[in-house]
Structure formats: structure tokens, C-alpha cells
Amino acid sequence: MAETHQEVLGGLTHPRLSPWGSRPVPLLPQWYRENLSDVPAPEPLRKLNPNIETLGQLDSFWDGQLDAVDEVVLRSLVEATRGRFPPEDLTVVSETRRSELVSYPFRVRTLNTLLRVGIQRGYGPLSVGDLLLLPNFGISSLVELMCLAESARRCPTCGRIAEWSLPDIAPEPAPTAAAWDEPWNHRKRAAELLASLFDAASEFHGASTVEEALKLDLHRLASHLEIPSDLAELPIQEITGCIRISDTLTDRLRSFRDTMSPREDRLIAQRLFREHPVTLESLAQSFGVSRERMRQIQERLKQKLDTEVGRELDILANVVRDELGAVNTLEELDRAVAEVLPNPNVGVFGAPADSSLAAELDLARRMLRSRLDYAQLNALCLNEAALRLVETMRGAASEVTDEAGLIDEEAMRDRLPSREWDGVFPRLMTACGFKAIQGHWAVRSSISARTKVALLQIGRPARKVEIAAVAGLDAVQVGGALARLDTIGRADSRRWGLKEWYEEEYEGIPTMIMQRIRQDGGATSLNRLLEDLPRKFGVSDKSVYSMVRAPRFQIEDGLVSLADESAIRLRRLRDIVHGRTTNGDPYWTFRVEDRYLRGYSLTGLPPEIACALGAAPPASSSTVAVVSPTMCGPLSVNWRLTSVSGGSLGRLSRPLAKLGVGDGDYVRLIIRSSDAVELVRDHSDGRLQAEAAPEDAS
Predict the structure, then answer these.
(1) What is the pLDDT of residues 618-637, one digit of tens each?
(2) Are 99 and 155 in contact, with CB atoms under 8 Å apart?
(3) Between these two residues, 161 and 564, which has the higher pLDDT value?
(4) What is the DSSP string of 435-501?
(5) Is 648 helix (H, G, I), strand (E, B) or coil?
(6) Cβ atoms 588, 668 nearer than 8 A
């Protein structure tokens, strides 16, 4: 073959070749052109050259075509060959030409595949079957290699394919596995791959500097180049030598500490970057200098440390901040610091480690924590942006909180500056000092909040004992909270729920009767009351019938209406009292029950007694002073017309306790005046004293 058709590289003869897709390299190998001659040419190729209608006519493609074809045309040709492979024993590369493969102008993927397996160092010819066994070597790479190999054997003058031989050269020994694992080879391989990545970044994305290339998605670009598996097999440690920033940091700290003065050493050991530092005053006294002088020494030492290792600390701090985010726990922060600055006291597999750098690593970790600038708040660590957001959320709490102190979580989330904060929302709420109660957030874990949350957890009207069990409270606490919360009411005589859960709130049988009297224009049917109220509120018809007989109502011809208060007639007081004292004061005797001692009111107080103690006119209340026993506080007197048992007397527990009475004992209620009473124990066990009363007693 003429010298003009060859060039000498490294002492070997190489063909001068153009890339696949350029003149005069065939677009498809000869085997495809001959065996698939009648297959229609793909549309992209026909648009480029209408004269080529079938694959068999590709031999004449370069007759009128000078410009290279693009990747679209090449892919369409490969697609046309899908499922049609040449015989596996068809030779593609002769034995004498394998070492020259690396000089072919392959595309990146094909070249990387061949280099990775060290194909150029092998022996013997390469067949179709050999090539298809190579990892990541598909039909596209096979077609490219066959076209270039065919072009290398074709005489550029006459166009005939001829066997191409090389000078006699001793075959190179096959490389050992260890040779290919040497670090220098990995570095060379990495340089080749990274160069191809940067070339692609420049060609396809216009990157002109490494910085611009790094802003791109290099992994995606590597996938386009079909080299991600090649990159995955390159060990970084053997490429870079693995000089860790943490090692640089500790080495510099060790060198720096060797030059420190005793005062500086004490400052670092006892004060700088400490959670609980020794005061400047005490250090100044120990060294016999002023506090201001000690402060100057401290500031100068901090500046020297920053000059020495500030860059390394900034790098590690940025890595840790990215790992931790805006809000984290102290344990997470310590763990992240330990990952970039390993614990010096634990070696590989738990074996004792070299502790010669323990002091430097301890100082490095303290300096790094200080560099991170996280503030601790409610057991959490927050960066500056998170701290500002916490203040905003605290200020917004009053706007998104109900009467129980429960926070509308969705409304609070709307206060977040962006959706990126959603992931740390629970931690932000904790940092605000808000309390999580069974999946709900509250300003405080108050009885009211726990009661309402328990009701929300149940999800339906419930009795006090059931609510108390879910809330972890007692029934008395729950009862008080239910009465205070405006959004909660009684669904019936025994159950409580959110008012939005039911149409009508139960406010007791008397109120329900009066509501229906108003609804029906001043009188309602007794039958309606006996059917409607038990059905809706779970009360008994006997309770309803008993209640309509209270002084507040009147029944006439089966209709229930409100009674005229002026028509209410009371008996004379002397017909009601049980006797009079020697001073002429009337008294009424009652039997003590244990519940009175526990704060419950006495019921069944005659209306005449209630009126004599200031509860007049009817349906009113009053308070009366207790003159004996002393220091007891006033009693409450109530007379409700809706009560079938008459009036009531409250706040008895303290005076009864002072009298020393218990369940079953009798006590006289002596009426000193309309606003003062005396309580004394009745030792007659309730037997009425037949004391004469003046004729004009009222």
C-alpha cells in the first residue's frame, strides 16, 4: 500500500481514517449492504439523498455527498438493522490489527468500552461474537467498528478492499490484572473520561470554563455519552491519593499548638469554643493581667486560628450545613460533625485508635460547632433563617388559635415563606414552644386543649368519662373544660360534642321545653314533648313529664305553656319552718349527705326559705352571710322555677366541716335576717322542737 495512504505513529503503521458518518467510511458494513440490500433506506437518509432508496444502494452514497451525516441518520441506519446480526464467526478485526484499534476515530462510548477491557492488548482476531460479549458493546458500537475496519482495509485510490498488514512486531504480553489496577492507570482513565465530559459540556451546552461545566448535570451528560458505568468503576482514592480536609485541619492544629504560649493553651483548653467556658475574669486573675488584656489575647488567638485553619473549617461547615439543613437536633449535629471529623478514640473495627491527635480533633470539633452558627432553642438547633421564622410563627399564633388554644396547622403552614420548610414544620412548631397533643398542635398542653383534642380523636359526641379517658384527665377536669369551650356543647343529656356535629344543642329539659313553646307560638303539645325530646336527646319521657309540672310551666287541655309568675302562690313561712329559737329566729332542719361535704349543693330547699333569704322574686338567686361558724364565706341561695325540687343551697362544705358533722347528721339553718344565717348541729337527730312561734310570724 502506498505511503501516502499511511502515517507512522509510535513506530507502527496506522491507516488515516475518518470518523463513521464521514466520507469515505461506509454508513453500513458490507455484510448488511449485501444481505439486506432490499430493505428500504430509513426516512432521514432518503431526505438527505433521495437517490438512495434501499440499503443495497448505500455503496454509491458518497458519490454525490461530501458533507458528513449527522447522528440522526446514523441512528436511523442502526435502527434498520435491529434484530439482524451478522454471523457470530464473521471476522471484524484481523489478528495483526488489534493493537491499532485505539487509533480509530471512535465515538466516546465505543472507545471507552474497548479501553476498559484492554482489547488492544489482546491476541487473535475479533469476531462478531467476541465483540458482542463485551460489556456495553451493542449493535451501534458493532456497526461503527465494522465500518471503520472496512474503511481501513479499503485502498483510497482504487476503492478495493485489501488485507492490510503491519511490520513484524513482537506481540505485546497480555497485561496482568494487577497492572490494570495500578493507580497511574486509573488516573489516566479518569483524565480521559473527564476530558470527554468537559468536551461534551462545551459542545452541547456552551460551557467555556470548568466552573460553567460543573453547574450542569454531569451525570445526565455522562448518560448521553454512555459512560456512567465507566465512571462507576474508577476508585477516587487511587485517583486523588485521598488527602482529606480533616487530616489537613488536624495536622495544622497540631503544628499551631506547638507554637502556642501557656496563656493561649489555657484559653483554648478552658474557654474558647466551650459550651460552659471559664470566665475571662478568672483567667485574667490566674495570669496576673487585667480582664481587658486577657480579652485582647483571646481575640488575637482567635484571629491566628482563623488564619491557620479558617479555610478548612469553612469547607467542613458548608458540608455539615448542607447535611443538617435549617433545623436539627443536637444529636444530629454531633453525629454530622463526627462524620467529617472522626472520633479519635475509636479505630477500625472498634480497635483502639492512635490518640496522639485526640486534643487536636477535640479542638477541631469544637471550632466546627462554633463555625456552624446554630442556636439552641427548645432542644433543637436552628440557623439564622429558622430563628427568624420561629419569631414570625410565634407572632402569628394568636391569629390561628381557637378558644381551646389549638392551632390551625394549615393556616400556620401558610405563614411559611416557601414549601421548602414543610419538611421541618413539626420541628419549627416545637422550637416555637408549641405542644403536640395526639396529632394536634396547641399553644399549651392545657386541660381545655387536651379535652378538645380528645373529643376530636373520638370523632363523635361522647360522655365525660370517655373523653376523660382519652385525654388522660379526670371527669371533673373535663366537665369544667367542656363548660368553658364555646365550640363544644351537649349533644344530649349525657354526651358532649362539637356544636357543628349536631343540629340542636341540648341545654337541659326545661330549656328544650321553652324552645318548643316559643317555636309553636306560646304553647306546645305535651305529646310532642314526650316524643321529640326523648328521641333527640336520650332523656326519659318520665323526666319530661315531671319537668312540665315545675312552677315554670302550666298544662291545660294537653298543651304546655309558660306559667304566669305573678300567679305563683307561696305558703306562709311559719308553715314551712321546723321551729324557732328562743330569740324567735325561724330555723329549718336538713339531713347532711356526704356529697354536701364534697362541694355539691343541697337541693329541695323550700321556695319559701329561699325567698326569706333574698331569692325573690321567683327565678332569682342571692348570697347570705354565715355568722356562725365563723370564717366560712357566704352561702349561695337559688330558686329556679324550672326545678321540681324547689330551691338549692350551695357552698356548704366549709361550714359543715367546721361543725364536725358527717353523713346522716342533722343541721339547723337559722335565719337571722334576709342576708344572714347561722348553722348549728341538731343533736335531737332531726326531731322537731315544738317551740311556740309568735302569732304574727310571717
Answers:
(1) 667 899 999 999 999 999 99
(2) no
(3) 564
(4) EEETTEEESS--HHHHHHHHHHHHTS-EEHHHHHHHHTS-HHHHHHHHHH-TTEEESSSSEEEEGGG
(5) strand
(6) yes
Cα–Cα distance, 561 to 130 (Å, whole number): 107
12 pLDDT exceeds 90? no
State the Cα–Cα distance between residues 668 and 684, nearest whole angstrom.
Answer: 11
Give, to the nearest 10 degrees, the angle between helix 108-116 and helix 139-153. Answer: 90
Tell me which residue has cell 356543647. 489
Residue 348 has pLDDT above 60, yes or no: no
**pLDDT the model gives residue 179:** 42
* CA 688/CA 587 separation, integer angstroms: 10
Per-residue model confidence as pLDDT tens digits over 102-126: 778 888 778 777 776 777 666 678 8
| Number of neighbouring beta carbons within 10 Å of residue 565 | 12
SS3 of 362, please? helix
CA 274 to chain centre: 31
Residue 535 has pLDDT above 90, yes or no: no
> Comparing C-alpha atoms, which of 110, 113, 33 is closest to residue 77?
33
Look-up of cell digits 325540687 = 645
Q: How confident is the model at residue 206 (pLDDT cuts 50, 70, 90)?
A: confident
Q: How far apart are CA 186 and CA 232, in angstroms?
A: 12
> pLDDT tier at 97 (50, 70, 90 boundaries)?
low
Q: Per DSSP, which regions of 338-420 are E strands?
A: 375-377, 380-382
What's the pLDDT score for residue 113? 73
* Cα distance between residue 115 and residue 132, in whole Å: 15
Helix axis angle, 330-340 to 358-372, nearest 10°: 130
Mean of all residue pLDDT scores within the chain: 82
Strand 635-639, strand 620-628: pairing: antiparallel
From residue 135, give the alpha-carbon distance in Å to each of 48, 126, 229, 522.
Answer: 34, 15, 10, 96
- Cβ pair 131, 148 in contact under 8 A: no
φ and ψ of 336, to 5 deg: -65, -40
- Look up cell 488492544; give the residue: 120
SS3 track for 280-338: HHHHHHHHCCCHHHHHHHHHHHHHHHHHHHHHHHHHHHHHHHHHHCCEEEHHHHHHHHH
pLDDT level of residue 478 (50, 70, 90 thresholds): very high
